Amino acid sequence: MAPWTCAIGDCSTAFDDLEALVAHQVTDHDPHRCRICDTAVPEGFFAIRHVVEEHTRAEYVRHYDADADDIRLRESIVDEVESVVDEETLRRRLDAADGTRAEAVE
Which domain, by its residues, includes 57? Predict the structure, then answer.
């Protein structure tokens, strides 16, 4: 069984490496519209990273009906993905799939 599974909606597509999963989230799912600032960001990891890095915890709680456990979970996802993903490999996958989406990595 592949160790990385997409958790967007009922997708559950599995991948052997994290870069493939994140590229899938960017290219195969519609963008997420941030409830706080109304910015469209790629669904999945990049949407989570956006809200964790660009907004306060209070904003996240208020706009996403979340609690402290939800915030900690998302922060841990960002930390884990950033510690495992090879950004250059991810950028190449995104360039190959759709060059306009590679900017999400930056």
Answer: 4-105
Residues 39 and 33 sit within 8 Å (Cβ to Cβ): yes
Sole residue written with tokens 């930390």: 79
- C-beta of residue 104 within 8 angstroms of C-beta of residue 94: yes
* pTM, entire model: 0.85
Helices marked H in 29-86 = 45-54, 57-64, 68-84
Number of domains in the chain: 1
- Bridge partner residues of 15 (DSSP): 4
Count of C-beta atoms within a 10 Å radius of residue 102:
18
Residue partners of 34: CB distance under 8 A and separation at least 6: 40, 41, 47, 50, 51, 54, 55
Three-point CA angle 63, 5, 7, nearest 5°: 25
Amino acid at 37: C
Report, as ranges of residue numbers, the positions in the chain whose pLDDT lies below 50: 100, 102
